[in-house]
Amino acid sequence: MKRHLLLSLTAVGTLLVTAAPASANGAGSGWEPAPSASWAYPTGARCDFTVQGSPVVDEVVRRTPAVYEDGTKVVEYKGDLVVRVVNSSTGASYDADASGRAIVEVRPDRSQAWYVVGPILTGFGEGGGNVPRGLYTVDGAYTLEVSATG
Fold first, then answer.
1. CA–CA separation, 110 and 93 (whole Å)
2. How far is CA 38 from CA 4, 41, 51, 53, 139, in A?
3. Distance between CA atoms of 150 and 2, rounded to whole angstroms?
4. Long-range contacts formed by 116-119: CB under 8 A, 24+ apart
5. Rounded to 5 degrees, what are φ and ψ at 133?
6. Whole-prediction pTM value?
């Protein structure tokens, strides 16, 4: 599982300036709720302790403005999201603002490119990116590449 966090000032709109979508098929017809699931990682997976997260504010919506002939989909996300991150050993918690906006290119091989204006909350396992293992709230404009294997 190789993930690369590339912090750059990539313009979010660059994804949408190339080819026109192959079909509309209702794509882009409107926003729909995109609820965030609660999650948990065992000790050592992301942190030196078991950590879990649950949305306390979740007003995220998504739409699919483009689907291309090769099967690539463009999905846009926006809305308020606050995740309560809890150290399961001590009960200590932090409410992380993850209310950024993203345009995600989902490719036929299941790899993804995320064009984001943060903040978002993201996590990396050991050797899973170009940052140390951990959970991060990342803010600003950047690109996140996710391989087909995650």
1. 33
2. 24, 11, 11, 6, 22
3. 7
4. 116/12, 116/141, 116/142, 116/143, 116/144, 117/12, 117/141, 118/142
5. -50, 140
6. 0.75
Phi/psi-derived region of residue 134, left when phi > 0, alpha when psi is between -120 and 50, beta in every other case: left
Task: Quickly count: other Cβ atoms within 10 Å of residue 85's Cβ.
Answer: 21
Select from 93, 81, 1 the least CA-distant residue to 35. 81
For residues 44 and 3, give the distance between their C-alpha atoms in angstroms, rounded to a whole number.
Answer: 17
Task: Assess contact for 143 and 2: CB atoms under 8 A.
Answer: no
Which pLDDT score is estimated for 26?
44
Domain of residue 90, residue span: 3-146
- pLDDT tens readout for residues 93-143: 999 999 999 999 999 999 999 999 999 998 888 887 788 999 999 999 999
What does the alpha-carbon distance between residue 133 and residue 119 come to, in Å, rounded to a whole number? 19
Count of domains forming the chain: 1
| Across 49-68, average pLDDT | 97
Q: d(Cα 45, Cα 64) in Å, to the nearest integer?
A: 32
